[in-house]
Each structure stands twice: as C-alpha cells, then as structure tokens.
Amino acid sequence: MASKSNKDKDIQAVSVNKPPQLDLFSLQDERDKDYSNSIDIYDALPKYSLEKRRRFSDLTNAVRERECRIGDRTIKVKVKPAIIENSKGKHELVYPGEREEIIEDALRKLAVNGGIAMIDGKAGVLFTFYELRAELRRNNHEFKLSEIKEAILVCRGAQLETVTHDNETVISSSFFPMVGLTTRKDIQMREGDTKCYVQFNPLVTESIQKQTFRLYDYRTSMSIKSPLARYIHKRMSHYWSQASARDPYTPRLVSYLAGSPRGLSDRMGSNVRAMKIALDVLVEHEVVASYKAKRITEGKKLVDIHYAIYPTDKFVKTVKRANYKSNSIRLKSDLREIGEEATL
Question: Are residues 169 and 273 in the same domain?
C-alpha cells in the first residue's frame, strides 16, 4: 500500500459541515433509491484506463493523453498513475481503471444518500468500508476489502489534468485530493468499520456549487458490465436532455470513440465491433430501443459511421424525471437566494 500523503488528514482534524446547498445534491427519497447524480464535464472525461494490464514499473511515457469534445470545447485529458507499494514491498504504477470507476460511483451514491459533506470547503463523502462494500454488493460488484482500500489509494495518488484547446488548464488535481481516516494507519490496519472521508475531485465540487449535476439511472448503470456501454449511458443521460423516441441520439463513431475511455483503435473493424457490442448491451438493458448505422466511405474504405440511436420509453421517462429534478433544484436555489437577500 502507498504511504499516506501529508495532505491527508485524520477525521478529527478536519472541519466537517453540511451547508444547505448540499441538500439539493441529496436523493434520500425512497422513490430515488435507484438513482444518483452524474457530474458535468467530469463524468464525460476519458479518465479511466480500460487495459487489462493494471500495473507497470516503467516510468517511460507514464502520462496518458486523450482528447474529448464536450459541447463546443475540445479538452485534452492527461492522467498520471498512482505509485502503489505492493505486498512484496515494491512500488508499481497503477492507473485508475474500471474498478476505480465502479467504486467512485458507489461512493457518490453514498453521498447522495446522505453521506455528502463539505470538509475544508470541498465536497466529499463520509462512510465506512462496510457501507461501501454493502453498496457494491447490492449492485453485484464483489471486491475484497483490500481491493477497495487500494482503489481509494489509486484515486488518491493518480493525477487528472484537463487542458482546453487554447491551453487553459481547467483543473489539475488527483481523483481524490484528500483521504481522511480515524487514525493514520487505519487504511492498512483497521477492518471494515473504519470511518473514512474521501474528498471528490474539484470538478465535482464545482458541479455541485453551480448545480450542473443531473439525475441518472444509477442502478442500470451499475448493472452494465461493458465500460463503453456504461460510458455511453452516462453521457446520454447527462447531455441528451431532449431525448425522445422521434429524435435520435446521433454520435459519429470516430469522434465518439476517440473521446471515450476505450479510445480509437487503428483498425476500423475493431472500432465498429466495439460500438456494436456496446449498443447491443444498451438494448439488453432497455436503454436503447433500436439503432441505425450509416457507413461513411471514401471509395471502398470505411472512414466513419453515423449512428441514429433511438431510446426506450423507460430511458425517456428517466430523462423527463431528471429534467423535472433539475428545474426543481433551480427553483429551490432561486427561492433560497431571494430569502437570503430579504434578510440582509
């Protein structure tokens, strides 16, 4: 396991508070048990590695770069691995991968269920390892306690940097900038009842403050085994607010995969298969009703595919629910601001 950073703190040494704005992020109503909140920009970034090989020792080309497009912005994403000490006492480079993505989503679910708190002015979640492991099990993700702890340390050590096309750095931070524990040795020595705090990436705090988070079907997302299909589902859920059975979602193969965690392969056949498999998975999970693929060629060479993806009624209902929730949050926020101004 990696050693604890000086920036990490004991739980007793930090200032914990829950300002009113965090109530808007919470989903504690029983009707919301299958939902969580997706985060603007952060959840769309291709930040997780999907390679089967997780551990490296060579520092050469340790920074992984990819570009994605969000709205009218092109964002370059750089990810540096965490340095983790293995059971043999040797240090390895570990990139955040599918395990870290699943565990981070589960932590955010614990946050919307009442665990969210501001510590030292940044959004995060208070939890125990038992609570986290139980949440993962509820969604059919079984991890050993040691794997969960290591995943948190990977997110603590791995660095995420985003830069816009005009070379303006949007954010440069670790996935989890701070981990707070009851004692400094808890993450290695204690069992699952360890009280823990994880501070989310600054983009999460920014999204909460600006109310750009959005309701999505967490239960369905966690049941999707394909990382690419899960990415498509989250992206559709967050940005396709006008989803309807008549107007399809229309991504293009090359740009969409290039900006996804999978990335774009040199072989077009591999890209086509990956997208087909992902879309078929979404059909199985009742997210996509059907889809069409229009091949774009130069001579006989396939250069791209233009998709028309039609949602299920179930997905459309979730989007409408998310729209209602977003409008309600904005109204509550406006009324709160009016009330605060009236007391001045």
Answer: no
Summarize pLDDT for 266-283 with one digit per residue, the tens: 999 999 999 999 999 999
Cβ neighbourhood burial of 200 (10 Å; 0-12, 13-18, 19+): buried
pLDDT at 339 > cutoff 70 = no
Which DSSP symbol is given to 104? H
Residue 172: both structure tokens together:
């440069």
262 lies in some domain: yes
* Rounded Cα–Cα distance for residues 336 and 343 (Å): 11
Distance CA 207, CA 236 (A): 18
Judge whether 249 lies within some domain.
Answer: yes
188, part of any domain = yes
The tokens describing 203, both together, are 């983009």
Residue 207: pLDDT above 50? Answer: yes
111 compared with 182, residue with greater pLDDT = 111
What CA–CA distance (Å, rounded) separates 44 from 47?
9
Whether the predicted pLDDT of 185 surpasses 60:
no
Please give the residue range of the domain that contains residue 293.
227-315
Question: How far is the C-alpha of 33 from the C-alpha of 219, rounded, in Å?
Answer: 9
For residues 143 and 182, membership in a common domain is answered with yes
Instruction: Name every residue whose Cβ is closer than 8 Å to that of residue 263 and which is 6 or more positions away in sequence.
Output: 46, 66, 257
Q: How high is the pLDDT of residue 167?
A: 73
Alpha-helical (H) ranges within the chain are 21-25, 98-110, 129-138, 145-157, 186-189, 202-210, 218-223, 227-239, 253-258, 268-284, 313-343
pLDDT single digits (tens) 36-82: 999 999 999 999 988 877 777 776 668 889 999 888 889 999 999 99
Count of domains in the chain? 2
